[in-house]
Design a protein that fits this description.
- Pfam families: adh_short.
- It comes from Grammatophora oceanica.
- This is Protochlorophyllide reductase.
- Belongs to the short-chain dehydrogenases/reductases (SDR) family.
- Keywords: Oxidoreductase.
- It is a single chain.
- The chain is of the alpha/beta class and 246 residues long.
- It has a single domain, classed as NAD(P)-binding Rossmann-like Domain (Rossmann fold), CATH 3.40.50.
- It contains nine helices and five strands.
- The chain has helices at 18-31, 59-82, 104-107, 120-146, 168-181, 185-197, 201-204, 217-225, 229-243, and strands at 37-40, 89-94, 148-154, 208-210, 213-214.
- Strands 1-2-3-4-5 form a five-stranded mixed sheet, sandwiched between helices.
- α1 (18-31) packs parallel to α2.
């Protein structure tokens, strides 16, 4: 609407099914050779009981992290083709303040990126912390030589379909504080857009952004789980993909 003559093309992609992710990526690459910006925005939150993806992974980590990791892996040739030293390609991973619920140390010791027993908020925290570490790992691996920059983003509290699994008592509390802490959808998109267009990948690449600014949240996570957490998560995720046939 804002850009006269712009065309919007849609692709169906279920992040909970790696076959669907593969199909969507193949369709994109059939039509396009270059990709300038990838925003990994899909997510689910706080499912009351454990549910599995089509490949048997815990659904929150499977959708929020593994599906997006695989999507990036498949689209990386197009991101590399679009990137230049002066205009890098950008990948933005949507995280959350809920990353603080993580138990990543335990998660990284498992073969399937899952902590037991199942807890809705710990699994959500693991998924959102994984988004932060994914962006860091991506930037560390691909920015210097292939000019693909990674950022993670806290969009803010926004009332969307993401809350469909949240219990009524929590939703009541959130409703009460909405005027003071929650954002509109447009406001919530602002930090992603900053990272997609303006943030400096040299100084702020790999970092966690909140309210349109880089923060030290990633450094705090690395103090908790180790400086090598991003690379370790990357290796674990690749092994999970291999184990389920991708």
């Amino acid at each position: 609407q804002a850009v006269s003559g712009a065309k919007l093309h849609t692709l169906t992609c279920d992040l909970g099914d790696l076959n669907s992710v593969k199909s969507a990526a193949q369709k994109f690459l059939k039509e396009e050779k270059k990709l300038d910006i990838l925003i990994n925005n899909a997510g689910i939150m706080a499912l009351p009981e454990r549910r599995a993806t089509e490949q048997g992974l815990e659904q929150q980590v499977g959708v929020c992290h593994v599906g997006h990791h695989y999507l990036f892996k498949l689209l990386k040739p197009a991101l590399s083709a679009a990137a230049t030293p002066t205009t890098p390609s950008r990948v933005i991973a949507l995280s959350s303040s809920g990353h603080r619920f993580h138990k990543m140390t335990n998660l990284l010791q498992t073969g399937r990126l899952e902590t037991e027993p199942y807890d809705p908020w710990i699994c959500y925290g693991n998924a959102k912390c994984s988004n932060m570490l994914f962006a860091k790992g991506l930037h560390d691996q691909y920015y210097e030589n292939e000019h693909i920059a990674g950022f993670s983003v806290m969009p803010g509290g926004i009332h969307t379909g993401l809350q469909e699994h949240v219990d009524w008592y929590t939703m009541l509390k959130w409703t009460i504080v909405t005027p003071f802490f929650f954002k509109s959808t447009s406001q919530g998109a602002a930090t992603s857009l900053i990272c997609a267009t303006k943030a400096d990948p040299k100084s702020d690449g790999g970092k966690y952004f909140d309210n349109c600014k880089a923060t030290d949240a990633l450094e705090k996570v690395e103090k908790e789980v180790g400086k090598d957490a991003a690379s370790l998560l990357w290796e674990k995720t690749e092994k999970v993909l291999e184990d389920v046939g991708f």
